[in-house]
Amino acid sequence: MIKDQLGPTVLDYDAHYGDISKAFGGDSYRVSNYAEMKDALEKAYESGNPTIIDAQIPASMGKESGHIGNLNPKLDLSALEEEENK
């Protein structure tokens, strides 16, 4: 790790993030389209339980919501590359 540099955040498309909610007694739904999202939101609201809705967004849709990639920290990997090239 480079001093004072934030680590990258990578969300794995195949990870089941809803399992975190289940581990603490909540509910979770994994959705990939509007109909599934609508159903999950209705069930979450009716249950009254803490809920995670894991929305699967294809990589072809672009970067994170709102295309705010310019706000993500830029990693300076030059020190690692220099070390690797020794």
Task: Give an account of the 3D structure.
By secondary structure, the protein is α+β, with helices and mostly antiparallel strands. It has helices at 18-23, 34-47, 78-84, and strands at 27-31, 51-55. It has a domain at 14-57. It is elongated and about 60 Å long. The protein starts with 17 loop residues before the first helix and ends with a helix. The model has no long low-confidence stretch (mean pLDDT 79). It comes from Lactobacillus helveticus CIRM-BIA 953. GO terms for molecular function: oxalyl-CoA decarboxylase activity.
Give the topology, please.
Blueprint: H1 18-23, E1 27-31, H2 34-47, E2 51-55, H3 78-84
Parallel strand pairs: 1-2
